[in-house]
Amino acid sequence: MFFNSLHFAIFLPIVFLLYWFMPNKSKTSQNYILILASYYFYSCWDWRFLFLLLFSTVVVYFAAIKIENSVSTTSRKIWLWSTVILNLSFLGIFKYYDFFVSSFTDLTNSFGLHLNPYLLKLILPVGISFYTFHGLSYIIDIYFKRIKAEHNFVDYSLFVSYFPLLVAGPIERATHLLPQLKVKREFNFEKAKEGIYQIIWGLVKKVVIADTCSMYANAVFENYNSMNSLSLILGAVYFAFQIYGDFSGYSDIALGTSKLFGIDLLKNFDYPYFSRDIAEFWRKWHISLTTWFRDYIYIPLGGSRGSKLFQIRNVFVIFLISGFWHGANFTYIAWGFINAMYFIPLLVLNRNRNNIEAFTLSFNLSSLRILFNILITFTITCLAWIFFRAKTITDAILYIKRMVTDRHFAPQYLSIKRYNYEILIMILLFVMIEWNNRYKIEPLSGKFSWLKVSLSIIAIIALGIFTDYKNFIYFQF
Predict the structure, then answer these.
(1) Catalytic residue among 114, 151, 326, 408
(2) What are the tens digits of pLDDT across the range 432-472?
(3) Long-range contacts of 414-422 (CB under 8 A, 24+ apart)
(4) Which residues does the chain have with pLDDT short of 70?
(5) 326 has catalytic annotation
(6) Are residues 256 and 365 in the same domain?
(7) Which of 159, 186, 213 marks a domain boundary?
(8) Considering its fold, how many domains does the chain have in total?
(9) pLDDT tens-digit profile of 162-173?
């Protein structure tokens, strides 16, 4: 079931009505409704993988209690590592087994050893990376005694499988979400209205921006050999806005949907394309994943302590793991490596924490410098996105090579029967709206909110008719 589907448009109001208008409403009944809705939501994709979600939930639930009740450190470690290895093994089998086997076979073939390995060719369970990380953060927090084990199985199951965040995040923490599930929620009209506004704006990002940009980006990337420099530059820009609109749009819909049930989720995006350097970009892009890697891998590795070489090693580890988390393809690893290379100079010069404070622009040299830094950061981000989008590293390199060497900047007619610059005005308008909304809690609130909402709905309906790219990119991760 997709957030941008008619199925979800029917599903959500039904769950909302059952949730708020049931007789004898209590925290327990609210959670039962949400857990049943979540399992139904997940089973709509493929009901067979519901058993995998349930298995992971049961294993982590009982292991957490065992860790909390264990007296010896050895016993606690055994339960922790057994649970971590088991969950990562399922993730590895479904997501990475065929990749590793195929890569090893290609390597042996290059030495003249021709193997014929067995590939599983399994369908990747949607959301497996996300709910696996939910469970891992919970069990690790239990081990280090940051939180108490949850003994209510329904509450813990809801934490892992809560449908707004189940298939593409944000990656929640037990310290943030579980306390909200332990108390009865009271209906708040203002929060519900804010949630509806956020859902609508998320759909604008997805249907109007991402799905429209995807048509152009796909047409360029799939035919890059015949595209000139202008088309290739625009293709990279279109994909940058496609993936941002797609994923931040999903996050907005998830956060807005959750507000309808009186539950707040972690913010996942903070206008990353207005970042002044790559370090700031990674503090604002996919925030829940970035902070997960920071807290559970980077800091345990030593973080920013020790020598510069030690810190550089830790940065490379995090970015390479982040790339590999996104998919079983060398392009994602290359994307992670490139971002690490962007980050290292800031780390070496102790400038990776420079741009933390908010900023405003005025007519002076300092503001011009800020705009220049934003443009440079966006440019290098787009170059890295080429590797993320390309099918192979070779395709990405050839794409960039042709973009630099072709040096023709005439408008081209794409295979979708459109010129390659037709949506630039729409993107520019979107950037202006995003810039204006940087410090707003809700983009559609404030003066003339009814007009903003009406225009947004009209845009969603109008452009939704002409676009057919319905899947969310991060469902594959």
Answers:
(1) 326
(2) 989 988 877 777 777 777 777 888 777 777 776 555 556 76
(3) 414/216, 414/219, 414/220, 414/223, 414/231, 415/219, 415/222, 415/223, 416/215, 416/216, 416/219, 418/215, 418/216, 418/219, 420/216, 420/219, 420/220, 420/230, 420/231, 420/234, 420/235, 421/230, 421/234, 422/216
(4) 100, 103-104, 106-107, 109-115, 118-122, 464-470, 472, 474-477
(5) yes
(6) yes
(7) 186
(8) 2
(9) 999 988 879 999
